[in-house]
Design goal:
mainly alpha, globular, 14 helices, about 325 residues
C-alpha cells in the first residue's frame, strides 16, 4: 500500500466496515461504515435507522429488508416481502465466504433456513407473514392453528404457543411485538410449513388456499423444511455461534453443501440446488428462488455501500 488512503480503500472493497469505521478520517465516512456494518451483520431491527449521509437509494433498499418495530409501523419492509431480505442474506453469505468468516456465514445460512417457509407462503398470503394481516381462514371453524393443547395438532408445544401469539400480537404494545419477533416468529414460519406439508391430521387451517396452488405450496414448504435439516444448516451447531467451539473449514462447508444438494434433490423444487449459478455455494440462490416461486438473486446493497465509501475516501483525499 502506497498511502493510508489506499489501505482504507482496500478495507472498503473488502467490506471491512467495522475496521474502516474505526479508522475513518471523517465522521461522515464513519457513519456510512456503521450503516454498512449493520447490513453485513444482518441487524434487521436497525436497517431503517436514520443515516442521512447515506444515499437515499441505499437507504430505501435497506428499509425494504427492515423488520418493523411496532405493529403499525409503515412501510412494512420485510413483512411486506422477504425477497429483498433474502437477496441481502445471499450477498452477506457471499461476502463472508470470500472473507473466510465462516461462522457468521453459517449463522446467515441458519437465519435463511428459519424463515424460508414464509418465502414459500408469500405468493399465497400477498405479504411475508405479517401478523397484522393473517388471512381469516387460518383460524376458521375447525382450524387447530393457534389452539394450545390440542393433541390432534402436529405442532409442538412451543409452535402452538407461537401460533397462538401470532394471532393476537398485532394489538399488543410495541414491547410485546418486538419480543414476539425475537423469540417466536421463526417458529410460526416452521409451523405454517407443517400445516401445508407434513401434518398427519390436517384441519381447516389451509382451506383458504385452493387445492391446485396448495399442492404446489406443499412441495415448496416441504423443501423449505428439508433445507433446515441439511448438513449445511447443521454446521451451525459446530460453530462458536452454536453450541460448540469448532469453526468449519471451507472444505467442510463445501462438503456439507454437496451432501445437502444430494439430500434435497428429491423433487423439482429441491433439484434447483443442483444448478451451477455461479454462487460460492452453487445452487443456493436457485433453491431459494424455487421455494419462493419468484426470482431471488444476491443483492448489490453491500457493494453499493462499499462503492460509496470509496468515493467518499477519494473525495476526502482530494480535499
Amino acid at each position: 500500500m502506497d498511502t493510508t488512503r489506499d489501505l482504507l480503500i482496500a478495507l472498503a472493497r473488502r467490506y471491512a466496515f467495522a475496521d474502516l469505521g474505526a479508522l475513518a478520517p471523517a465522521a461522515e465516512i464513519a457513519e456510512v461504515c456503521e450503516f454498512g456494518q449493520r447490513l453485513l451483520s444482518l441487524d434487521a431491527e436497525d436497517f431503517a435507522a436514520e443515516a442521512r449521509v447515506v444515499p437515499a437509494e441505499l437507504r430505501r433498499r435497506a428499509r425494504a429488508c427492515h423488520m418493523p418495530q411496532t405493529p403499525r409501523e409503515q412501510p412494512r419492509g420485510a413483512l411486506e416481502s422477504l425477497r429483498p431480505a433474502y437477496g441481502l442474506l445471499l450477498e452477506a453469505i457471499a461476502v463472508r465466504w470470500h472473507r473466510r468468516e465462516l461462522s457468521p456465514m453459517i449463522a446467515a445460512v441458519h437465519i435463511a433456513s428459519e424463515y424460508l417457509p414464509l418465502l414459500a407462503f408469500e405468493p399465497h398470503l400477498g405479504h411475508a407473514g405479517d401478523p397484522a394481516r393473517w388471512p381469516a381462514g387460518l383460524s376458521a371453524p375447525g382450524s387447530r392453528f393457534g389452539v394450545i393443547g390440542d393433541r390432534e395438532c402436529d405442532h409442538t408445544k412451543s409452535e402452538q404457543s407461537a401460533t397462538n401469539r401470532t394471532l393476537r400480537v398485532s394489538v399488543e404494545p410495541a414491547e410485546g411485538w418486538r419480543a414476539y419477533f425475537d423469540r417466536q416468529h421463526s417458529q410460526v414460519a416452521g409451523a405454517l410449513a407443517v400445516c401445508a406439508a407434513t401434518c398427519r391430521n390436517p384441519c381447516t387451517s389451509m382451506d383458504w388456499i385452493d387445492p391446485e396452488p396448495r399442492a404446489d405450496l406443499q412441495l415448496r414448504a416441504r423443501t423449505a423444511l428439508a433445507f433446515a435439516e441439511t448438513p449445511l444448516v447443521r454446521l451451525r451447531h459446530a460453530a462458536p455461534v452454536g453450541h460448540g467451539f469448532g469453526v468449519p473449514s471451507p472444505e467442510e462447508v463445501l462438503d456439507a453443501w454437496e451432501r445437502s444438494r444430494l439430500a434435497l434433490d428429491k423433487n423439482a423444487v429441491g433439484a434447483a440446488a443442483s444448478k451451477d449459478d455461479g454462487f460460492p455455494l452453487p445452487g443456493l440462490p436457485s433453491l431459494f428462488a424455487a421455494i419462493a416461486d419468484a426470482p431471488i438473486e444476491p443483492s448489490t446493497l453491500l457493494r453499493g455501500v462499499s462503492e460509496h465509501v470509496v468515493r467518499l475516501l477519494e473525495r476526502h483525499e482530494a480535499a
